[in-house]
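Worked Example 4.2. Consider the chain below.
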Amino acid sequence: MSEAWSEGAHAAFKAHGVRQVGYVPDGGLKTLIRLCEADNDIRTVPATTEEEAVALCAGAWLGGQKAAVLMQSSGVGNTINMLASLIVTCRFPIFAIVTMRGDFGETNPWQMPMGQNVAPILENLGVRVFKVTNDEDAVETINAGLAMAFSADEPVAVLIGQRLIGAKAFTSEIAEESEDV
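Applying the procedure from the previous section yields the following structure tokens:
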């Protein structure tokens, strides 16, 4: 699992003037979140749901700042109404980094349906989607996506694949333990 893309994403946020980052915690985003939290020029806002992070981006834009959303693919479903009604209709720029589950090497069957449908769902809503699987492409794509979002008032999502962030192990023992809780 490489974390160089996270350092490149943070540098891209700085270069493009991102001042706020809304996120729902996720292991694949841990390094990027920590870099943003440690940066005095970027305000990080943990959200209880992904649509709150999307609304943060709209509010930041109305207030004259650029913001980004960080979320896992399983949370994309929570954003559908907010993206379709507020972001697309009002032409707010939004930039999202989405770490993928249900992708390369996934062993958790609960992650498969959303993982297969993230890109088509976002594309059907009018979001420009770019998939990446390695550090070099990730940094280049994040820079390009930020430029597109904030220069053309476009919704843009960069999907970070499991080849880059690694797949989490899922076994029946883990499932049985979680059923006991």
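Helices lie at 4-15, 30-37, 50-62, 80-90, 112-124, 135-152, 162-165, 172-180. Residues 177-181 have pLDDT under 50 and may be disordered. Compare this with Example 4.1 before moving on.
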